[in-house]
Write a structure and sequence with these properties.
Length: 546
Amino acid sequence: MRIVLATLLIQIISLWAVAQQPDLILTNGQIFTSDTSQLYVEALAIKSGRITAIGRTVDIEKLATRQTKRLDLGGMLVVPGFNDAHNHLPGGLKATKIASAGMDPSWEAVLDSIRKAVRQTPEGQWIEGTIGPSIANLPAATRFVLDKIAPNHPIRLLSWWGHVGLYNSLGLREMGIAEDQPDPKGGFYERMPDGKTLTGKGYEKNAYWPHTSYAKMASLRDENAMIGEFRGMTQALLKAGITSYQNMCTGATAADYARIWKKAGLPFRLRLIRWGDMNTDGSLSIPAKDQPGTTSDLPLLTISGTKWLLEGTPIEGGAEQVDAYPNRPGWYGRMNYTVPEIERMCREAIDRKDQLHFHIGGTKSIGKLLDLMASMPVDWKPLRPRFEHGDEIDYSPEYIRKAQQMGIIIVQNPTHFAPMEGVPMGPPPTHGMAMKTLLNKHIPLAIGSDGPFNPYLNIMFATTHPRRPGEALSREQAVIAYTRTAAYAEFAEQEKGTLTVGKVADLAVLSQNIFKVPVPKLLQTESILTMVNGAIVYDAGLLKVK
Ligand SMILES: [Zn+2]
């Protein structure tokens, strides 16, 4: 009997050993795990897309069999694939795009580009361009000026940070906006001194697809061009070492993005965060609300959470502040919704156990939101509410305390710390855009780009912090915020975010050691090999799998 048992045991063990035989081992590397209990290992083993062992090269090599493939890292740095926790996929407006000079082109320069585009574009076709703070805040920039040079082409000029749009008259008409269009919930039209006539500028919801239904958006979209754009973007993402992308569905519904994603067949993880909208009667409209979170035909795609745009940004004076804007006496900014309206958004999310993502950042507005949430008889922690930007969360110790109590996650966008053309920096403020303080206070901090998705640019700004150098993170902290905490911020920390046993093998082998190179060299970093689920999805051809 004992012999039978022993034989059985040996059989079970050898079966187990076969099951454990790695498909691939990575050895002789500097593998940054993002797990603070063991930040670096030399080697790891992968089986069926997951990490099955980490440790020293000698130990991992012992696990390999004749079937196991090997990748000698030759001392290169490996990081978990970056997870961009906040970005926006293109919306696919069918348009001639005008090139803009820099982040803050002059009105004259943009008008010149439009004149050129008008000559090259068939009448009736959209012309689209990007504007900066100067034009967004210029009273003379109106549709009437655009109408003179482009009476027969619809035009949309969108601010690069998304909260201001400028249309010509045909553009407004094409979008279905009447001359006497009232403001919808969640957006504003700028009006001439008569208080009625539209200037062509729209804010918030009105900037992007002004007061337009998703059906209208779909009719203006070029889906094939969008697929091409996605594919081009994917190459750049993978070459940057990004393996996860959390998309705020500004330009299309989550269902539309999922369909286009499926056609494009892209090999990285995409999370689609629904974009919430409020109807004029105050009822909530959340497109793709009933769409399943995951489906077996699209294993890399997740649909979850809802984003609400509660206010604008300090750039156009949209964020609501305690003190008036220095350049606009008596103007404090404004929220897009009232507190009772925001409470409705909260209740809706609580009922569905849905994760809330609030665009919020002002000194006043953050206080109002925290007060509201704290007043509700809800255990917020398990719902992991997110404040996107959350710039002024350190305005008062009371804000910090409430954020801690409710488990608020801050998703910050380091490229927003960049000095802005034409805006003097001044001395560092004592609050706003905090990073290090948040970590010290144990508030989860994830990094998203909400702009250029280059992780090394974002790491550079997170670790130098031109606005508040005292709030700069270490590079290790920045990478952890970009991987482990970004996964936590989407309820995926059991699956990904660290290079530890049981996690998916999503990783990037980097061209240089980003923890050691001097700051100016950071931007030269590229991934030389990117893996998603243990499969090579980008390969610069410098390393050989044998
Ligand atoms: Zn954003």
